[in-house]
Predict the structure of Trans-aconitate 2-methyltransferase.
Amino acid sequence: MRNLIGYDRLASVYAILEWLMFGRDLQCARVALLDKIPSANQVLILGDGDGRLLTELLIHFPRAKVLSVDQSSAMLKRQDHSVSLVKAIDRIEFCCVDATTFKPERGKYDLLVLPFFLDCFDAPTLTTCLPNWLSGLNDDGAVYLVDFVQPESGYARWRGKLLLWIMHAFFQIATDLQHRELADLPDLLATLGWQQTERIDRNNGLVTSRLYVRSSST
Ligand SMILES: C[S@@+](CC[C@H](N)C(=O)[O-])C[C@H]1O[C@@H](n2cnc3c(N)ncnc32)[C@H](O)[C@@H]1O
């Protein structure tokens, strides 16, 4: 629960800070692959923050029921407000809990949405928690990952390193984030048996939107 107060404090200024650093790129990344997700009636979204992807998801999938898990009550309050504006409050359940202790109902969900959430954790924590979060998906379930990745080479790599360093330093001060290294999220998902089916990168390869299914289901 270390990040709780930090994210509560950040909730009201989160979108502005994001815009100052990345313009519209992160919001474009959040919605980039919504059209490619085949169907989603039961959705689990972890760490959606102020609700900007959640709202788009509810509009895009008008029959979907969503469980949104976030440890910050201030972020969830903003989600609640955004969801009521799109009149979808009857399709959403909020759960204010530390996701590292959260156990999803096994096999219940068609879609697991991870928007700039996995970057809150170091690789050892993800190695423990990711399989638990993924266990909520049914056999045909998909993972929608939107997050930062370290670009592979050249100018993009050095630029990415600098921006990631700045962000880690900021979140360390603002939320008591403990790690300074971004885990290799695509590699972790591949190791756990998930195969990428769609991908859009932006911001010089620093920001990625990816869709995954179980390797055996392609
Ligand atoms: C970096 S912000 C990303 C917010 C949003 N998804 C976005 O696209 O900008 C991380 C979000 O995950 C939540 N979070 C961080 N660690 C968490 C944890 N251990 N359990 C539950 N939520 C957590 C924070 O409260 C915050 O809303």
In short: The longest strand covers residues 137-148.
